[in-house]
Amino acid sequence: xxxxxxxxxxxxxxxxxxxxxxxxxxxxxxxxxxxxxxxxxxxxxxxxxxxxxxxxxxxxxxxxxxxxxxxxxxxxxxxxxxxxxxxxxxxxxxxxxxxxxxxxxxxxxxxxxxxxxxxxxxxxxxxxxxxxxxxxxxxxxxxxxxxxxxxxxxxxxxxxxxxxxxxxxxxxxxxxxxxxxxxxxxxxxxxxxxxxxxxxxxxxxxxxxxx
Length: 211
Fold this sequence. Notes:
Elements: H1 2-18, H2 30-37, H3 41-53, E1 57-60, E2 64-67, H4 75-96, H5 99-113, H6 123-140, H7 144-164, H8 171-185, H9 189-210
Antiparallel strand pairs: 1-2
Helix pairs in contact: 1-3, 4-6, 4-7, 4-8, 4-9, 5-6, 5-8, 6-7, 6-8, 8-9
């Protein structure tokens, strides 16, 4: 039961931080979080520890735990590493995914086709599905060390996308992700890696223009 409560607390806080509803620099008051999330202190503490490992919160001695800052000047550096790792992960996913994994990639591509990508659409739904799609590729890559690093970098860049708000169009990012998932499902490592690189290159260009 405690693990389930901790997961719920983690997912709720993660969503709030990534979508900037809980803004950078905000103090995370443990007692307030317990009341807000309707749980006990232990799940809240476990959730905060997980967020700290991802770099989304930072503990400052004698002051408390705060939502970490979003450093927009680091867009290029974040994507410099993410681009190469995602290329590897996409290729590994295309090479290593079993039949169930390929089916999952096809199903996720279908979900992405159905998302509303208009500028005035629900940004939270877009970001949530985008995160599921990327995390699926990381999982199918079959390397837990790469997966942990990629998830961390994805979440850092996701906050930059949230900061850009309605200033970016999502049609091309989703189209590229659909093609990438189909390459994974088809077992085509070179194409999957190339699409991951294109996806990241487009992200850097778009964020630089928007921020």
